[in-house]
């Protein structure tokens, strides 16, 4: 009897640990839409954690230049009454995040994606291998007006970054070995 209870407890603990474990990934995308080309130039790279229960986007990086923005969970209610569902022409089921203006180049993203805004939210379609991506940008109105759609950015999947030795990625770090003579 005790043996069975111990095995059930062990199995439940192992399943909870596996569900909580996240695999860090990086996907790069090429711009398709006019907004994507205008706002990202060479494209976008997304750093995210993939779990059995879902995906959490951590950072967005401009593929062609060393600019990155850290993302925090976005709150639908911050967009105004009804959130994404109340806005016309947006994907109401997308995952919502907010650019953190205090870390990395967050303020640069806010100014570039939504001039005049003090806050920037990004919604992401589902991240998956070989799947195109849609990101929609939303900015606040510092004068108290309604949140607005600042751009709809469509991207084609370019590829997945292979991370060295299972380390967490730092896209600003040069991972190439130093092969200079000397």
Order of helices and strands: HEHEEEEHEEE
- Report the mean per-residue pLDDT as an integer: 82
Number of helices: 3
- What sort of overall outline do the alpha carbons produce when their principal axes are compared? globular
Q: Which consecutive residue ranges, at least 5 long each, have pLDDT under 50?
A: 5-19, 174-182
Q: Got a strand count?
A: 8
Largest sheet: 8 strands, antiparallel, barrel
Helix content class: 10-25%
Which class do the helix and strand fractions yield? Answer: alpha+beta
Radius of gyration: 19 Å
Which percent band covers the strand fraction?
A: 25-35%
Distance between the termini: 68 Å
Reading side by side through the largest sheet, how are the strands ordered?
A: 1-2-3-4-5-6-7-8
Describe the structure concisely:
The chain is of the alpha+beta class.
What does this structure look like?
An 8-stranded antiparallel beta barrel has the order 1-2-3-4-5-6-7-8. It is 19% helix and 34% strand. By secondary structure, the chain is of the alpha+beta class. Strand 7 (133-139) and strand 8 (148-160) form a beta hairpin. It is globular.
Furnish the topology, listing elements before pairings:
Layout: H1 2-20, E1 23-31, H2 34-40, E2 44-51, E3 54-62, E4 68-73, E5 95-99, H3 106-113, E6 120-124, E7 133-139, E8 148-160
Antiparallel strand pairs: 1-2, 1-8, 2-3, 3-4, 4-5, 5-6, 6-7, 7-8
Question: Which features characterize this protein?
Answer:
182 residues, alpha+beta, 8-stranded antiparallel beta barrel, 3 helices, 8 strands, 19% helix, globular, disordered C terminus
């Amino acid at each position: 009897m005790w043996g069975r209870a111990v095995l059930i407890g062990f199995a439940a603990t192992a399943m909870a640990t596996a569900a909580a474990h996240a695999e860090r990934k990086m996907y790069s995308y090429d711009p398709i839409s006019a907004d994507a080309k205008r706002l990202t130039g060479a494209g976008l790279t997304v750093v995210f954690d993939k779990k059995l229960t879902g995906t959490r986007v951590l950072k967005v990086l401009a593929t062609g230049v060393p600019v990155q923005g850290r993302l925090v969970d976005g709150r639908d209610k911050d967009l105004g009454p009804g959130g994404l569902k109340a806005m016309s022409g947006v994907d109401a089921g997308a995952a919502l995040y907010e650019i953190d203006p205090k870390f990395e180049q967050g303020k640069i993203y806010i100014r570039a994606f939504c001039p005049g805004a003090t806050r920037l939210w990004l919604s992401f379609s589902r991240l998956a291998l070989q799947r195109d991506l849609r990101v929609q940008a939303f900015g606040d109105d510092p004068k108290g007006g309604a949140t607005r759609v600042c751009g709809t950015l469509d991207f084609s999947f370019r590829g997945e970054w292979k991370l060295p030795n299972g380390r967490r990625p730092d896209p600003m770090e040069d991972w190439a070995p130093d092969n200079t003579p000397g």
